[in-house]
Structures are given as C-alpha cells and as structure tokens.
Specification:
83% helix, mainly alpha
Length: 173
C-alpha cells in the first residue's frame, strides 16, 4: 500500500469513526436519561402511595397533641377522688397511654418532628408534676384550677408541637 492509498483510506474512515463516536455519545446520553426518567416515575408512584399514610400519621399526632393539651385533658378527665396526687397520676397515666397508642406513627414522620412531639408530651407531664408538688394545692379540684390558670400565663407545650407539625405538613407539598 502506498502512502496515498493509506491517506485515502483514512479520509474514508474518518467520517465513519466520527459518526460512530457521536452515535455512541447520544446513545449513552439517551440511555442515562431513560434510566433517570424511570427512577423518577418509580419515585413518583411510591410517593403517591406514601403521602396519604404520612399525612394520616401527622393527623394522628396532631390529635394526640390536642388530646394532651391541659385544657382539653382536664375537661375530659375528671378526678375520681379529691386527692391531688391520685388525680395527677391519672392525668399522667392518660397521657402516657395516648402516647403509647400512637408510637407506631414515628415511622412515618421525621425524627425531628417526633422529638418535638415527645418534648411536648414530657413538658406537659412535668407541668402537671410541678403543679401537683406545690404545697398550697391540697385537692384535685385545686390542682385542676391551678393548671387551667397557668394556661392563661403561658402557651401549653402541645401548641409548640402542633405548630411544628403544621410546618412539616406544609413542606410536604
């Protein structure tokens, strides 16, 4: 083969190589885009099924926080006897039972939200214990009155938790 024939062969092969490289590039690009599209569609389908469950979990936790709000709790749970310690124990036991009933919801909500809900529950229990420990309060009715009076001065801890849940639900959209 002469130098001219080799050069002529290269001129004939060069467009084929360029077309082959471009075709490979676009085929590879198309394949990656299709893979991303399929992943997006799978994720979108999974979200469609997961979102209602997550919203239901947030609803249940909002209901929990509403139920343990001192104003609602004291209206719902009446003292059996006039002993303030027994009444405080009954209130705390009710809060703990409500919480245990909703433990599974933590799977569907964020860890931060779950921690805020637990902190709200614990703060509510601590407020009941602190109020019950006061010496000037002698009866269950006085305990109820004192807890309700303290709500005038400060926002109940459950309101903080509810605000956080509302913020998280807004972020889901």
């Amino acid at each position: 083969m002469t130098e001219d024939s080799i050069l002529q062969l290269l001129f004939y092969l060069l467009p084929a190589v360029v077309v082959g490289v471009i075709a490979f590039y676009f085929f590879n690009l198309h394949t990656r885009n299709e893979e991303r599209r399929r992943r997006f569609l799978l994720h979108k389908e999974a979200q469609k099924h997961a979102l209602p469950v997550r919203l239901q979990a947030y609803e249940r936790m909002a209901l929990f926080l509403e139920r343990i709000a001192p104003g609602n709790l004291l209206v719902r749970i009446k003292p059996v006897r006039n002993n303030k310690e027994d009444y405080a124990t009954l209130l705390i036991k009710t809060i703990e039972q409500e919480f245990e009933h909703n433990l599974a919801q933590q799977i569907y909500i964020t860890d931060e939200c779950w921690n805020v809900i637990k902190a709200s529950k614990n703060a509510t229990i601590n407020n009941i214990r602190k109020t019950a420990a006061k010496e000037e309060i002698e009866t269950a009715d006085a305990l109820r009155q004192q807890i309700l009076t303290s709500l005038i001065d400060q926002q109940p801890p459950s309101e903080t938790g509810l605000g956080y849940i509302k913020k998280e639900v807004k972020n889901l959209w």
